[in-house]
Design goal:
Blueprint lengths: L2 H49 L16 H11 E6 L16 H4 L9 E7 L4 E10 L4 E8 L6 E8 L9 H4 L2 H4 L7 E2 L2 E2 L2 E3 L9 E3 L5 H16 L2 H8 L2
Parallel strand pairs: 8-9
Antiparallel strand pairs: 1-2, 2-3, 3-4, 4-5, 6-7
Helix pairs in contact: 1-2
């Protein structure tokens, strides 16, 4: 083997080794990035769920003041996760946090699973229902905490994918909008009656004021709540009958 051949072999070997090292490094970085992203999403979702019962945490605590570790600790200690089917039956050995409503909505309606989070403090328990629907531009979703009477709303959170800032996006960005739902009743004569009302609410027990200039988003919230909560009715009725 002459010097030129030896040099070429060295260069090729070096390139192969560096390529392998780079590929492994990139794969590792991607795995770390994905893991961090998944963890951040988990914390965000659990914080949002706890925010629906923010007034009932006790000891003057507020979800907004909790660190990520404190959120996870509180969630693990005070929230029971339940998965139910369309018949209202509990599905064993499943965690509610693993249920993605965006995925479930693509299934036939009878096969969809629902997440339910039960928050407990020293005095009572709250049933937190998750719903998903459509706004003006894209999907919207939310969590609704219901008191132990299974009818009174304790708190809600909403989010969206692409509603207009200053208009439809106010369902998330303006605390006054979700704040209107506190104390409202959900059911009337066995049906979901909660409603976002354009031009101002008239029935103070079941209606909240819509957002000016965001009628379609408001209608989407109403539809999401009425349809989404109705999916939980078989389970709610099973609890009431115990």
């Amino acid at each position: 083997m002459n010097l030129m051949e030896s040099s070429n072999k060295y260069i090729i070997t070096f390139i192969i080794i560096m390529t392998v090292v780079a590929a492994v490094s990139l794969a590792g970085m991607r795995e770390i990035t994905m893991s961090a992203s998944t963890k951040n999403e988990e914390i965000f979702n659990k914080r949002s769920i706890l925010l629906t019962v923010n007034e009932y945490l006790g000891n003057g605590l507020s979800v907004t003041d909790l660190s990520d570790d404190q959120v996870l600790k509180m969630f693990n200690e005070q929230v029971e996760q339940v998965v139910i089917n369309q018949k209202g039956e509990v599905v064993p050995k499943m965690l509610a946090e693993k249920i993605d409503l965006a995925v479930e909505k693509k299934k036939p309606e009878g096969e969809r699973l629902l997440p339910l989070f039960v928050f407990k403090n020293d005095k009572e328990k709250f049933y937190i229902l998750s719903v998903r629907g459509s706004g003006l531009w894209d999907e919207i979703w939310g969590n609704i905490a219901v008191k132990s009477d299974l009818n009174t709303i304790a708190g809600v959170t909403f989010d969206h994918k692409g509603e207009t800032p200053g208009l439809g996006a106010e369902i998330k960005d303006n605390p006054a909008f979700p704040g209107q739902f506190v104390g409202k009743q959900i059911f009337r004569d066995g049906e979901v009656a909660i409603l976002v009302k354009k031009g101002g609410s008239q029935d103070k027990l079941y209606e909240v004021d819509g957002i000016s200039g965001a009628t379609i988003t408001g209608d989407g919230v109403s539809e999401m709540l009425q349809r989404g909560i109705s999916y939980y009715l078989p389970y709610i009725e099973s609890i009431e009958n115990k």
